[in-house]
Design a protein that fits this description.
This protein is mostly beta strands and 717 residues long. Helices cover 2% and strands 59% of the residues. The protein has 2 domains: 2-108, Immunoglobulin-like (Sandwich), CATH 2.60.40.1120; 117-716, TonB-dependent receptor, beta-barrel domain (Maltoporin, Chain A). The strands form 6 sheets. It has a 22-stranded antiparallel beta barrel. Strand 24 and strand 25 (338-356) form a beta hairpin.
Length: 717
Amino acid sequence: MLSGQVLDQRSGAPIGGATVLLVNHGASAETDASGGFQLLVHTDHPDTLFVSHLAYQSRRVVLIPPVPVSEPWLIRMTPKVHALQEVEYAETITSQDAVFEGEPAVALGGSNLQQELGATLAETLTGEPGISQRTMGPAPARPVLRGLSGDRLTILEDGQRTGDLSATSSDHAVAIDPAAAHEITVARGPETVLYGPAVPGGVVDVDRGMLNGQRVETVSARFTSQLESVNDGVVAGGDVAVPIGPVAFHLDGSLRNTSDMSTPDGELVNTSLHTSNLAGGASWHPGWGMAGAAVTVYDTQYGIPGGFVGAHPNGVDIEMHRERYDLRLEHETGWGALQSLELDYSYAKYDHSEFESSGSLGMSFGVLSDNARLVANLGEQLGFDAGAVGVSVGLRDYATGGLTFTPNTSEREYGVFAYERVRVNGWRFRAGVRGDMKQVLPDHLRVSRVIGEIRDREFAGASGSVYAGRQLSRGVEAHVMLTRTFRPPGVEELFSEGPHLAAYSYEIGNPDLTAETSWGAEFGIAHERGWFRQDFTWFATLFDSYLYPRNTGQPSARRNDLIEYQMDAANALFAGMETTMDLTLAPDWLLQGAGSYVRAENLDDDRALERIPPFNGHLALTWSPGRFAFTARTIGAARQWRTGEFEDPTAAYLRYDLLAKVELPWGYGLPGKSSLHALTVSVINLTDVAYRDHLSRVKSILPEPGRNVSVVYRVYL
């Protein structure tokens, strides 16, 4: 039997009404008025104890057998930092009852993920400090972190590359439906070297739980439904995990259907979205580790609006299909410092077609990608607490059709990396280093009169990051982080040639580009005094050969209805700040705020770079009596007057939202289990104000969405 008490981290007061869930067993309990709970279970396998409450940050405790049960567990919870995120602290309980508190990871999960659930990954994340979204209508939205997107921001699904083309063009959608996500995590710093060259924007990982690293003991299920008024949106989805002995089977799926988006000034035509997603997997958990396989099929059809200068008159319709196959092997070695070996492999087949209103094919893409990674997870060795070393291989075969002249090309990527963490005299250090080589090999070598010589290219370089943090005094913590990145160009940047109707551009690559590198620095300080907490982070990144499509302002000689975008390189500087504030006004009242700003300069011509978000932020007041929570918030942005050469400024705005949510346990669920029901009702843009987002490429047509009533219902069985 596991028993314990849940307490407020600051006051020590008991927390009643918290949900305590033993994830793999499926056993759950609700804390009583004294904060106490009991779980009548026994576990011989690793498991996770998840504790949640609407007014507090979730806690997740990893239990490694043999689990001590002689004394009650004391679990302390901290009031939520702000309404848009959950910060989870992972603890590992070993047989020696030692506790290691890892670095906090910013993650959107549980009731907060449900509250912010949008039609796309970008829309779901937009409220986080420092995160914006680039859009060409709602469907192809993609996250932007600190003004950086594309290949400077890596998006993962269950720890592997998505296999889509969302990083290459603003009309390409991310092949992930957020309704299928269990948790969405944003990471920056040394840990990112495990997933590719250190990236200045960071890594976004969408955890779907398809290949569960822990043994599943009982049947569990989750079902989600959502209705939205702004686009007549309907979403339905669910997932189920079924154990049969040491094998766990996982199945999930979702359907999303929306009409054209409504704005205060009218309907944005050709912005409908139709998506289906189906995935299945199995994980085998013998005594030596885990072996698993999964298959995911994702289909979507969406529209890109038109009807303005530089766009197709009637817009463009896009059909996209992706199949992904994943394999994972984990072997717990027990060999001293070498704790385990992990092998991940994914294969993705991606097809993308763009159709004019007449039905004729304008452009098509086909990509076959293989990604493999072998990681050795290390325990204490050479004075370090923990770490990992490994190698990775990425293969991508890229083909185009339709009106483009871009050559079919193969890309080959090879990497080796190491990551370590250690605590020394009150300091917490983390460091990661990585070396990469990339080959870009076009099928046919030739000379183009438009872009120059199309030839084999090879790039090699190193990247890495170092983090140091410590507590300066009671309630004051600080950290500093230094990062060096290396990003070689891809086939789209080197060899693109031809009209791209959905992107409103005639694309011209540059076969002579060199690799992009950068040096970044970050300094953060957090101050907490019981009822008040504030965090500040300052950052700056200096790019050498910052690669970007330069708007020439000239119509193409081949397609005079499209502006030429020429791939170029420049020295550039990104600098800015982020801040969050948490003020407890009364036991059930919390005032929260956040703000972020980034300034980006092309140092070669002393001009602002295009598509950089202005200062933006939010302020929210939450009342959370018991299992209910009610939030009133305002979200806004300052005027963006620092624009690129052919870019228009955007005005300041304020938007008002109301949100309510409730979580209720129910005595009836799957056999031997209770259920949890969660309902969220949101009114976004309450006053139906017309405002324009600076990163929207359709802002010259119509403003952002109007008033939207969203209802999300989830049941956990």
